[in-house]
User: Fold this.
Amino acid sequence: MDDAGDPGIMRRREWFRKLMGGVMGIGLLAVPLGAGLLFLLNPLRRRAEQHGFSRVASVDSLPLGTPRHFMVRGRRRDAWEVGAQVPLGAVYLVRQETGIRAFQVICPHAGCFVGYETARQRFLCPCHDSSFGLDGAISNPESPSPRGLDELEVKIEKGEILVRYQEFRPGVTERIAIS
Amino acid sequence: MSRVSDWLDRRTGYRRLLSWLLYESIPGGARWRYVWGSTLVFTFLLQLFTGLLLWTAYSPSIRSAWESVYFIQHQMELGWFIRGLHHYASHAMIVLLVCHLLQVVIAGAYRSPREINWWFGLLLMGLVLGTSLTGYLLPWDERGYWATQVTTKILGIVPLLGPTLERLLLGGPTYGHHTLTRFFALHAGLLPALLVLVTVLHVVLFRRHGVTHPEDAKGEATFWPRQAFLDGVACLAVLVVLVALTGWSGSERGFVFGPEGGAPLDAPADPSRPSPSARPEWYLLFLYQFLKYFPGRSEVIGAVVIPSFVVGVMLCFPFLGRVRRGHALCVGITFATLTGALLLTVTAVREDQTRPMYQAGLAEAQQKARRILDLARENGIPPDGALAMLHRDPQTQGPPLFRDNCSACHRWDGHDGTGARVTEVRDGESVAVAPSASDLAGFGTPQWVAGFLRDPSSERFFGRTRHRDGTMVQWARKNIPLMTGREIDAVSAFIIHQPGDPKSAAADAELMALGARVFSAGTSDGAQSCVMCHQLDHPQISGSGMALGPDLTGYGSPEWLSGIIRDSSQPRFYGSQNSGMPKFAHRLRSQELQLLTDWILEESRTGK
Assistant:
């Protein structure tokens, strides 16, 4: 090639080579990687489900002053599966003279299932010892939980207790619903 | 920048590796024919990447495999694209493997000192086929299920160890959850790991001996930059073809870049239903066709002995190649094998094209695949899985139930419910069978009743039953000429749209009132009423006759229809006048009965 020595042509050729290499590299990597990223980010686009009220227990079955936990069943969509009456989680129901209150059993600190200590009449989380009173508020200032137990909406219909099941983000002071 | 790379190089020595990789010597310079290996590596890396992505969403169990693949294909962003790439890249691997093999054989690169690398190459080919086979089952759809059955059965007929190996592969005596978990472990774990390992060995050995260049090759170049450029162009071409294939949905629909395109997904596998259109992937059709020529116990020869022999001969190429004209022989054997495979493939495709059973099966499979998609999109998939949902769907279950239980006597628009003619074999020939009872297409609609009233002795209705000269036929002969068309339509609508019928609220009130009058009192021109023989509990009907014919209360409702199917000889229906229809109360489970009645009524209403 007689023009091989021309520095201008060499430069242009080098530039063209880099351009082609770049275009090929982008094509070969960008198509699978871009599609893969969108695919992996799918969970960010799935919307949390709003649950309606579910029947949990009858008023008669609830003793006065002692919380008990009940399973909540309801409609749930989990990826492809739609269950009409699947266990969503559990709630504590507390019946007092003033009425019935429902608390989410998940500890707002780190997400463990909170227990109830009958002797001291308090909720106690078995993981990091957060404790809560019967009204759900933090009862011991040394509790690591950033907020009291999350209260859920309750209504009574024909002697049955209905609860609207919700979960909240743990570890933060505000109540932020995640379902 | 250079300080950072200096720092890195002092600690890792990466520059030496890079220069080893890039500055491979290529005597004779870069050539297009050297690109196959690189395209295979690229396609394999694409498989690892898309496979890993699919892994994040796939669930291997017989009640979630199809469901999760459906979700990937139809609900997740670009899921159809990732799955399509993975599917078609597996086809591309086979095509590229064959190209690579041909290049190696023609160049004589299997000969000394590259024998071991030739064997590694054949091993890689086996591993790729194994990965394709195990992957075909994973969606647990009809074609994957039935085609893989054939493959594992072939393993089972291998002498001595076959049955044990088959059982180990399936995770039990038959297909089940552990078949999927094991196939998945093979497909996504063991086989890719082996492929990576052997590919690395293959490439290292290849670098040790260099490319097999033409003997008269002049000059010398290095891999970088020109061969790298050619390889890059070839890989890009592979990617473009894969993207195009992912979008291509056949000549009718053209390119569909969306969930409706991409890799096919049949209805979920159903061991209880035939699937005559299930075939292995196109690149295994030649083996499938080959098996047809080995009847009975000789199957093992076609399925195991001959393929093993061919592989054995190929393993011996390095030795064959040494003798005089040995190279020509090896090239000849390779081309003969490939030509044979090609001819077998073409034969298989052409036989299927002219086989009614295959074509009907294909149409049915496509219809079922569309139906399950509609159901899944509409309601989501219940916890007991997509197959259970399909089993509860009247539109899917009605036709085979009608064929199996009703079509011995009844017809549906002339056919057996599934669209096939009813035939039997007489003197070795298949002849059409005449029905002996009514044609039920349209049953439960006013149009059907009006047609019946106008001519009950027609072959569509009572013409072939013992009622063809019965009271109803005599009544119609005498009275129908005395009625106007509107009166016939009115009484028909009145009988069907009884309280409780979903359309009764929307029915024309004036027409219904006329129908009620005709039913209970006849017409002004002297036509006799229906209540003389039929009972009907209705607020507008008073008085009743002798109950000679069936009680029409709820006529055309699911309850009435399932009642007459259960036992038509009840006094409420035909009583002692029953035409010989068997009692189905114990033949059909209550769920089947409900599916059948729902299908008859729904199909009649929608006029299909």
Observations:
- The first helix of chain A runs from residue 7 to 40.
